[in-house]
Specification:
Elements (H helix, E strand, L loop, with lengths): L2 H25 L5 E5 L6 H17 L3 E5 L6 H8 L7 E6 H10 L7 H4 E10 L1 E6 L7 H10 L5 E4 L5 H13 L4 E4 L3 H9 L5 E5 H10 L2 E6 L26 E8 L4 H15 L2 H8 L4 E2 L6 H20 L6
């Protein structure tokens, strides 16, 4: 066989493969899909997943079933999807924790976000809210910083676990303001908020969705937001950056991903459908109420977003010596 004949056969083989993949993509999906959420039911991640799953199922002609796999700082759910067949039938609600921060915290993970996942679409982002008990004698960030400097090491801040974005937001606040606070991790938002409401800890950088009922009831006071803009949900609450600490920014974000080798045609189909769903006016109105900004975009933007977030947090995690084991 001469080289020209071999090249011709190679070309025929490649054409056959692409034809086969194209035919597969045209018949996709032929069965229900699974959308794995690495958190318990009821939280903002779960609500976002379920809001997308229903219309996505209608658009695809097959049900999209949400499956909650909480635990291990999102590792359990992420590992399950990383090891799933790359056929477009298993999707993952990735987040800043699972796609960007975990690789910085763990020396060894059972999954690699860059190597194991293909981005489908960015979904949403949200700032956190800096909240204190109503009994704490401060009404803004400046007064809180002054109190912390008068009482060094006397203030504690809660989070939902070491290395979680809520923890990192508190550590970043310490660096930005030059104050000291003791980090107290809790196993979930409910016990952390209970401790905050009971004044066992004095501040928390929390998800807006979980703190807002207590803010509205007057039990917690919102001092500032960790993002770059104010929220319609909390119109009178300034940002930390706008309170005298320019450059401060933290928050959470979500993206849909699928196993890495999923055919490009299927990823493109999923991206197109998710983009259309997130562009619907009722979706924006629904998630404005959860302080979530919808940010759909090209599938390749997921990896770029994760890389930018890793660059943002790598130095802080290294300097603070934050390290976890799975």
């Amino acid at each position: 066989m001469n080289k020209w004949t071999k090249r011709a056969l190679d070309g025929v083989t490649i054409l056959a493969i692409f034809t086969s993949l194209s035919a597969w993509a045209q018949t996709y999906p032929s069965k229900p899909l699974k959308l794995v959420v690495p958190y318990a039911a009821g939280g903002s991640t779960d609500q976002l997943a379920r809001a997308i799953a229903e219309p996505l199922g209608r658009a695809l002609g097959q049900a999209v079933v949400v499956e909650n796999k909480p635990g291990g700082n999102t590792i359990i759910g992420a590992e399950a999807v990383a090891k799933a067949a790359p056929d477009g039938y298993t999707l993952f609600m990735g987040s800043s924790a699972s796609l960007a921060v975990n690789p910085l915290l763990y020396s060894k993970l059972p999954y690699d976000p860059a190597a194991d996942f293909a981005g489908v679409s960015m979904l949403a982002a949200s700032p956190l809210v800096m909240v204190v008990p109503a009994s704490l004698p401060v009404t803004n960030v400046k007064e809180f910083v002054e109190l912390a400097k008068r009482r060094p090491d006397a203030l504690n801040f809660a989070s939902v676990g070491n290395g979680n974005p809520l923890h990192l937001a508190g550590e970043l606040f310490k660096v930005a303001t030059g104050i000291e606070m003791t980090h107290v991790p809790y196993n979930g938002s409910a016990p952390a908020l209970t401790a905050l409401l009971g004044n066992q800890v004095q501040v928390m950088f929390d998800v807006v969705l979980t703190s807002n009922p207590h803010i509205q009831s007057g039990k917690l006071r919102a001092l500032a937001l960790t993002g770059t803009n104010r929220l319609a949900l909390l119109p009178n609450v300034p940002t930390i950056a706008g309170s005298g600490y320019p450059g401060y920014e933290a928050g959470i974000w979500f993206a849909m991903v699928t196993p890495k080798a999923t055919p490009a045609a299927i990823v493109a189909r999923l991206n197109a459908e998710v983009t259309k769903i997130l562009a619907q006016p009722d979706m924006k109105a629904r998630f404005d109420g959860l302080a979530l900004e919808l940010i759909p975009g090209p599938s390749e933007e997921v990896a770029k977003y994760a890389q930018r977030e890793q660059a943002r947090w790598a130095r802080l995690i290294r300097e603070k010596g934050i390290h976890l084991e799975p």
